Amino acid sequence: MNPFASSRAGRAGPWLGIAPGLALFLTFALVPAIAVVGMSFTDISGMPNVPWHWVGLDNYRRFFSAGAVAANLDVINRTLVFALSVTVILNALALLLAVLLSGRLRGAALYRSIVFMPVVLGVTIVGLIWSLVFNPTGGPAASLWSSFGSSSSFLGDPKLAFTLIIFVQIWAAIGTTMMIYHAGLMAVPADLYEAARVDGANAWHRLRHVTIPMVAPAITANMVISIVGSLQTYQIIYVLTGDRPTTSVLALKVFSIGFGTSEQGYAAAVSMIQFVLVAVIALVLLTYLRRRETQL
Amino acid sequence: MTVLHDAPSAGRLQPWPADEQRRRPRQWSPWRLINYLIALAVVALYVLPLLFLLNTALKRPGEFSADPVGLTESLALGNFVDAWTQGNFGALVANSVLYALVCAAVSTVLSVLIAFPVARNYVRWSRSLRVLFVISLFLPNAIVAQFQLVLQLGLYDTRLGYMLLMTAGLGVGPLLVMGYLRSLPRELDEAAAMDGCGYFRFVWTFVFPLCKPVLGAVFILQVIGVWNDIIGATIYLASPELRTISLGLFTFYGEYGNNQWELLAAATLIVAAPLILLYVFTQRLFISGAIAGSLK
Fold first, then answer.
1. Which sequence ranges form a coiled-coil region, renumbered to this chain (chain B) (predicted)?
2. pLDDT tens, B112-168?
């Protein structure tokens, strides 16, 4: 019960306080998220004052039409490869780093802070730093390549560009994931390691049978965050290469269709396809990991 | 640089305390050496790109293309002046500071006004409101619908429209504050109400100061979110005089990215410097904010 409710002002106060924030959230976040479903059945454009029509499932048919389906399945495939490889490598490395930089090492906290830095710097600065490093006319990467007697145009190379993007994404995002694992590790009771050691467990056994089961909830959280995040992220790709046939993912397609060619009805349909993909994968993964947690 | 966990507390909680108990603190086992080498390599992977950026920024125009990886022969601080004036960074920085501070301040205040009565169940539908904010984090990608809305409201290409969207779009604030409020005693509200303290006076003089730690994290999270936003700024800020520093840097990259890396590196450092400084001084807030933010 609201203890301030004895006066009229005290009864109205909570709602008066909630109203502006809730109105802002409903108007600019929730209503658009629902409206995007309706928009996906129209041919609305991004240009003001152009008439629009209901077109039924045309946008979805167009996405899977004979002329477009090969390229679009390629994009879906690349979205999945991106999300899967980022999630798996990111989590494996982040957990290893968290164990490695766990406080036993002198200066571990400083090392962790350094690894966390890209999270603060943001996508534009991270993108420019790596564009400079991968500068084909003579960056550090080019010198390294040439010392092995080879050369590459890096982000300009259609075969290599996507791999480099995955690398940069992992480099930039590992700080947060590592910090969550670190927080999980700090909560593991010290006696467990002592008991394991008394029982003759070596470093690998301790990692496998003490650390991993104990941080299983953090693994679940991190895996779900990473997969949902990496299925939706496109800013780093936008900065590093832009929308190219060899590097594009679904989320970047939504942006480049919606604001490049201004076909926002079609972009809304791609949004919905992306949403279904994210929802299905997140639910399956969550169910699987929750079940694993109890088995570990 | 203040570090996240100072040595004594980290020492108490470290995962393998048995090592300390065997009392051989200075002994160099091969495993320990490998541990340090890996840590060193990781730190190098994060520090070297930044140092390379600084090295490039200090080169004279043309020096980079002549010798990209070599140590700079000059301290061409003029690059910073040139980048600042050619990119018109003064106006861009002023815009970004305005957007970041206004959005962060407004959404921090709104977060508390929403979170306090909801966390305390002082309003009907508290539970539904909480669920609503959790759901908001898993909504479909609505950029095209948001754009249509902003267009209809006549807010396209205005400071107000951009700030409203950025304030509404960063929805973790209320959830973070709700989580924190659970640790504050409810008896305080009752005592204050008994003494005749009004609702808003109580929120202002008690809830805000008591929530300071989490509000710092919410504020900082919003500041970096807005400062680093590139997509929102690209979509909504068409007029050059409204643009942000991140967008300005990205435009600058489009103009100078091919041949004038000395200027571009200087520009990148100008944009990164305030973030790095802020990070060094408010690291705890940054990290707790980012972890909580990603845990959504």
1. none
2. 999 999 988 888 888 888 888 888 777 888 899 999 999 999 999 999 999 999 998
Residues B145 and B223 in one domain: yes
Helix, strand, coil distribution of chain B in percent, nearest 5: 75, 0, 25
Q: How many CB atoms lie within 10 A of CB B226?
A: 28
| Predicted-assembly ipTM surpassing the 0.85 threshold | yes
What pTM value is reported for the model? 0.88
Domain presence at residue B20: no
Of the residues B109, B141, B205, the best mutation for testing chain A's interface (the one with the most A CB atoms within 10 Å of its CB) is B141
Quote the domain boundaries for residue B53.
30-76
Q: Which residues of B touch A176 (CB under 8 A)?
A: 290-291, 294
Q: Give the closest residue to A132 by CA, choosing from B55, B134, B293, B111.
A: B55
- Amino acid letter for position B281: F
Record: contact A4-B198, CB cut-off 8 A: yes
Tracing tokens 């070596």 back to the chain, one arrives at: A202
Nearest CB to A125 within list B168, B268, B279 = B268
Query: Domain of B243: which CATH number?
Result: 1.10.3720.10
CB atoms within 10 A of CB B131: 11
Q: How far is the C-alpha of A226 from the C-alpha of A219, rounded, in Å?
A: 10
* Distance separating alpha carbons of residues B78 and B281, to the nearest angstrom: 28
- Looking at the 3D structure of chain B, how many domains does it have? 2
A42 - beta bridge partners?
A: A54
Q: How far apart are CA B168 and CA A127, in angstroms?
A: 26
Domains of chain A and any CATH numbers: 60-295 (1.10.3720.10)
Query: Per the domain annotation, does B150 fall within a domain?
Result: yes
Residues in B closer than 8 angstroms to A116, CB to CB, are 286-287, 290
- Helix, strand or coil, per DSSP, at residue B68: coil
pLDDT tens, residue by residue, A41-52: 999 988 888 888
Is the Cβ–Cβ distance between B148 and A44 less than 8 Å?
Answer: yes
